[in-house]
C-alpha cells in the first residue's frame, strides 16, 4: 500500500533511485551504520519526523533510519532544495512518506511540515529548526510525546540556543552541527565546494581574476573563501567578530567593512546566519554587473525587498539569475532568489562529506531513542564524544588510512601530573 505523500511526480522514481545509489557509493560510514542498524534495530517502532533538504544524500539517510526500525516522514527544509526524483524514489521504492516539491510556496512548505508532524513523532530531525519551531508554536500537543531531536545546521542551532536561554525549549535536542566530524568537514569543505559549484552553474562566469567578497568567516565562510581563492579570485572577508576577522587576516585574506567591499566586489556571498548583511546602502555602491548570492540557511541575508524597491526593472536573465536594473543603469544580479545557492543552483554538498554529517544524525537518533529525556532537561546538547570518534574511525578505515595508538607508557604520562620536565 502506498504511504501518504505529496511529491511532484512519482514517474521520476527510477531516476531518483539511480542517483541515490550513486551517492551511496561515496557514503561508506552510513553503509557501516546501516549494517549495525539492521541487526540491532535501535529505532524499532519509533516515529521520526524529519525536515531536511531532500537530496540524494538525505535519501540515503532515510533508508538507514528505516533499516533501524523507524517509521519516517520527511519534508523539505527549503522550498528550492528538493530534488523531485529523490522524493519520488523514497515514496515509490522505500515506502517512506515524503512531503516535498521543488519550488513550493510558503503555504505548501508549512502544510508539509504539519503533514510530517501528523505522524506524532517521538524523534525530530531538523535543518534550520522550522520543524521544532512549528511544534512549539502550533503543535504543542505533541511535546510530551517527544523523546528528543537533532539539528543539522548552524542557523538552527542558533535558534535552538535562543529558545533554551529563554526557557521555552520543550525537549532536548542534540546539536549535530557542532560535532567535529560535521562542521570541520561539511561546513568547510562541503559548503566551500558546493557554493562555488552553484555560482558557476548559475552564471558560467570566471572566478579567476575577480574580486570575491565573503561575508562571515565561520566554518562555512572559511570554506567558501578557500575555494574561491583556489579558483584564482582575490578574496575579501567581512566580519563582525574580531577573532574571526583576525584569523582571516592571518589566513592571508583582505579584511574590511562591507561599506568598503561593496564598491569593489564582483561576487558577493553571505554565510553569516544573520539578516540584511547586504542591504540598501551597499547596493548604492556596487559596480554594474555585481553578482550576489547567499549560502546561509534562510533567504534573509540579502535585503531583497530593498533591492526590489530600488530597481526600475527586474527580469529573469538565466534560470537561477535575476537581474535588477537600477535608475542609473547599473545592474545587480541575484542568484537563486537569495536562497541557498549551493542547493538551489547546484546539488548541495558532495556525498562523501555528507556521509559523516548524516552518520551523526543516524547515531544521535539511536542515542536519543535509547536515552531520550532520561536524567536530562530540555536543552541543546553536544554530540556524545564517542559518536564523533566512532565516525572518524570508520571514515579513516574506509579511506585506507591507519593511525597510531598510545602506548601504555604514553597513556600513563598523559594521565599523570607528577611527570614534568
UniProtKB/TrEMBL annotation:
Binds 1 NAD(+) per subunit. This is Adenosylhomocysteinase. Pathway: Amino-acid biosynthesis; L-homocysteine biosynthesis; L-homocysteine from S-adenosyl-L-homocysteine: step 1/1. It comes from Desulfacinum hydrothermale DSM 13146. Keywords: Cytoplasm, Hydrolase, NAD, One-carbon metabolism. It comes from the Bacteria. Belongs to the adenosylhomocysteinase family. GO terms for biological process: L-homocysteine biosynthetic process; one-carbon metabolic process; S-adenosylmethionine cycle.
Amino acid at each position: 500500500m502506498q504511504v501518504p505523500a505529496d511529491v511532484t511526480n512519482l514517474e521520476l522514481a527510477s531516476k531518483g533511485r539511480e542517483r541515490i545509489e550513486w551517492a551511496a557509493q561515496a557514503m561508506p560510514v552510513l553503509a557501516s551504520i546501516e549494517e549495525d542498524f539492521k541487526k540491532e534495530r535501535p529505532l524499532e517502532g519509533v516515529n521520526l519526523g524529519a525536515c531536511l533538504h531532500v537530496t540524494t544524500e538525505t535519501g540515503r539517510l532515510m533508508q538507514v533510519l528505516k533499516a533501524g526500525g523507524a517509521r519516517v516522514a520527511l519534508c523539505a527544509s527549503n522550498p528550492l532544495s528538493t530534488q523531485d526524483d529523490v522524493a519520488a524514489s523514497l515514496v515509490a521504492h522505500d515506502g517512506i512518506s515524503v512531503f516535498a516539491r521543488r519550488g513550493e510556496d510558503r503555504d505548501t512548505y508549512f502544510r508539509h511540515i504539519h503533514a510530517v508532524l501528523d505522524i506524532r513523532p517521538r524523534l525530530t530531525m531538523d535543518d534550520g529548526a522550522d520543524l521544532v519551531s512549528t511544534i512549539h508554536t502550533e503543535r504543542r500537543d505533541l511535546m510530551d510525546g517527544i523523546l528528543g531531536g537533532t539539528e543539522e545546521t548552524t542557523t538552527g542551532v542558533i535558534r535552538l540556543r535562543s529558545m533554551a536561554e529563554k526557557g521555552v525549549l520543550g525537549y532536548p535536542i542534540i546539536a549535530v552541527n557542532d560535532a567535529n566530524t560535521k562542521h570541520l568537514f561539511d561546513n568547510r569543505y562541503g559548503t566551500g565546494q558546493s557554493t562555488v559549484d552553484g555560482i558557476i552553474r548559475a552564471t558560467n562566469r570566471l572566478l579567476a581574476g575577480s574580486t570575491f567578497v565573503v561575508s562571515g568567516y565561520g566554518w562555512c565562510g572559511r570554506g567558501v573563501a578557500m575555494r574561491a581563492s583556489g579558483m584564482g579570485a582575490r578574496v575579501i572577508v567581512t566580519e563582525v567578530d574580531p577573532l574571526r576577522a583576525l584569523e582571516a587576516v592571518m589566513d592571508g585574506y583582505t579584511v574590511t567593512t562591507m561599506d568598503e567591499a561593496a564598491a569593489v566586489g564582483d561576487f558577493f556571498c553571505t554565510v553569516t546566519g544573520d539578516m540584511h548583511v547586504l542591504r540598501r546602502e551597499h547596493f548604492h555602491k556596487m559596480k554594474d554587473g555585481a553578482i550576489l548570492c547567499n549560502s546561509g540557511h534562510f533567504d534573509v541575508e540579502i535585503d531583497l525587498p530593498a533591492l526590489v524597491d530600488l530597481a526600475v526593472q527586474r527580469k529573469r536573465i538565466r534560470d537561477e539569475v535575476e537581474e535588477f536594473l537600477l535608475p542609473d543603469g547599473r545592474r545587480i544580479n541575484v542568484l537563486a532568489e537569495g536562497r541557498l545557492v549551493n542547493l538551489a543552483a547546484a546539488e548541495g554538498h558532495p556525498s562523501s562529506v555528507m556521509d559523516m554529517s548524516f552518520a551523526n544524525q543516524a547515531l544521535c537518533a539511536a542515542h536519543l531513542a535509547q536515552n531520550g529525556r532520561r536524567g536530562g532537561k530540555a536543552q541543546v546538547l553536544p554530540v556524545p564524544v564517542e559518536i564523533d570518534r566512532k565516525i572518524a574511525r570508520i571514515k579513516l578505515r574506509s579511506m585506507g588510512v591507519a593511525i597510531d595508538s598510545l602506548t601504555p607508557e604514553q597513556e600513563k604520562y598523559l594521565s599523570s601530573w607528577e611527570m614534568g620536565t
